[in-house]
Amino acid sequence: MKIFVCIKQVPDTNEVKLDPKTGTLIRDGVPSIINHDDRNALEEALRLKDRYKDVEITVITMGPPQADVALREALAMGADRAVLISDRAFAGADTWATSNTLTAAIRKLGHYDIIFCGRQAIDGDTAQVGPQVAEKLDLPQITYVKHLEIQEDMVLAHRALEDGYEALSVKMPCLLTAIKELNVPRYPGVKGVFEAYREKTVELMSAKDLDIDPDIIGLNGSPTNVKRTFTPAPKGKGMLLDGCSKETVKDLFSRLKDKNII
Amino acid sequence: MNFALTKEQEMVRKLMRDFSENEVKPLAAEIDETERFPRETVEKMARYDMMGIPFSKKYGGAGGDMLSYAIAVEELSRVCATTGVILSAHTSLGCNPIYQFGNDVQKEKYLIPLAKGERLGAFGLTEPNAGTDSASQQTVARKEGDYYILDGTKVFITNGGEADVYIVLAMTDKAKGNKGISAFIVEKDFAGFSIGKKENKMGIRGSSTTELIFENCIVPKENLLGEEGKGFSVAMQTLDGGRIGIAAQALGIAQGALDESVRYMKERKQFNKPLAAFQGLQWMAAEMATKIEAARHLVYNAAYRKERGLSFATEAAMAKLFAAETAMEVTTSAVQIHGGYGYTRDYPIERMMRDAKITEIYEGTSQVQKMVIAAKLFK
Ligand SMILES: Cc1cc2nc3c(=O)[nH]c(=O)nc-3n(C[C@H](O)[C@H](O)[C@H](O)COP(=O)(O)OP(=O)(O)OC[C@H]3O[C@@H](n4cnc5c(N)ncnc54)[C@H](O)[C@@H]3O)c2cc1C
To answer: A88-98: b or e for each residue (b if 16 or more CB lie within 10 Å)?
Structure first.
């Protein structure tokens, strides 16, 4: 079984701040990490590799040359192959241009059974790239996967909903997006770190390698325009109704009625 | 000259930081309070190939380097000095003598499972009457046919009772003084070997420190480590390297105390201001940070030199001396910065201060480090 895992290197949002003037992220000096949900996707692929024979995991990222570190970390965790899609021509891509690029790379990389993405990246929160790649490759997809099993050529997955889950099955090849409830990712092993740098390689793919129309990648290929980024004003303080439940419920109903909510 | 860590070392740092914060820190107060050996942490460290970082993959190690190993001990000790010394004693004192002095059969049989973390190692040199004067060994090993028979008692042995494999020093020829000392590999199940009293300590309370008792203990002659009569040299060279591990432990403790202090100074308010606003305390923190950085350079330099095959014994002694004293000073200041709260067990600072003290004592006291350094000066 061949699994492709798409990962993104993102700034660690625990440490990131917004520039109050421009409203953009201050990335200077902020450590970079593998996006959380992508780590869950990779972990699930690694668990399949632990469980079944002949699983090969390829991690793929589109990013600047520094994204090499994220791929090495994935290799250190146990991935077999790593591909860095990097070119100035890809810079400024929105989700549409990104999924165009990833799709082109995946086509070049050959056979796969599962493409695994994280649900969304913490620096964009769009949750669009995974589903777009599935559409462009004409693959069935299950998003928000929180539980996964393989049965012959089928993937059985639980797709998280707000108040429960859907049990779905889909034939491979398919695309899945992972959420954090899926698993607890492992740490890279120390031995893995040395192997990742000394014994494994990161394959590079540039725009030329992809034979892709320059008008559908990078800033040119991005229909999205970011008008302004800002920190939303904090919500007002909540209100706590104290007292016995009969009274507070009555109180609550009248307040909601006053506001025409019910 | 290059002071930057390699990308590998950076990644080892990051993973050790994550591992320590998530897996080690949550246990630190409890294992200190209850004197519990954190077996589950040892198992996790084995799973992530942390138990043999500087040894080649051929011998079950991670194929890494001394500096990565020092960083690992530093990061563990930053949150829990007990866990730091478990790894340091295992790697530097348990595994390294076999790596450096063992023959192929011994490496196959003992080093591989040790470096993989399937077994835990320890090192027994100190005796009730052989502390700083470690050459005055009273444990004897007499040869009988295919065996050595060991008799005697070791004290203060880190990982005692928890370890599976012990490097033990004993006199094979008393008349020859320190040239009559030999090193042996002793398994915990060998007949005549038992564990004595467990120490109730001031710090690193989760680590097990015990007596080792040998009463007609039967050790196969194949378990002689190095040549007969060369044991003292095995021990001294082992400690030279071990000091890098303990220096890294001291460094980690100091860094942990500084990190806690900086956080506390931002949070705690007096006179309507955070403590961080008071210059008197800022200067204290600045001095702590500067000494830690100096200690770090000494420790990393010693590790780098050992890795490169350069002479490192003096540098390791300097690193241990300075890092241990830094740890003691910094943790004492950290308690001061925390005021009354720092004196209670609600904060980790008093533990760090108790833990720091041992780094000035074991693997050669600070006085011994000065002897080593002075010996080089007045050679
Ligand atoms: C928690 C713990 C763990 C340990 N782990 C191990 C272990 O795993 N394996 C092992 O073999 N040992 C271990 N030790 C032993 C440790 O290395 C010794 O305690 C240390 O070497 C000092 O020996 P001592 O305690 O007998 O002190 P002593 O030698 O009695 O020294 C007492 C004091 O006198 C000073 N002193 C002694 N001689 C001189 C001199 N000539 N000039 C100036 N000052 C001098 C010393 O520096 C010290 O301050 C451990 C000890 C402890 C407490």
So the answer is: ebbeebbbbbb
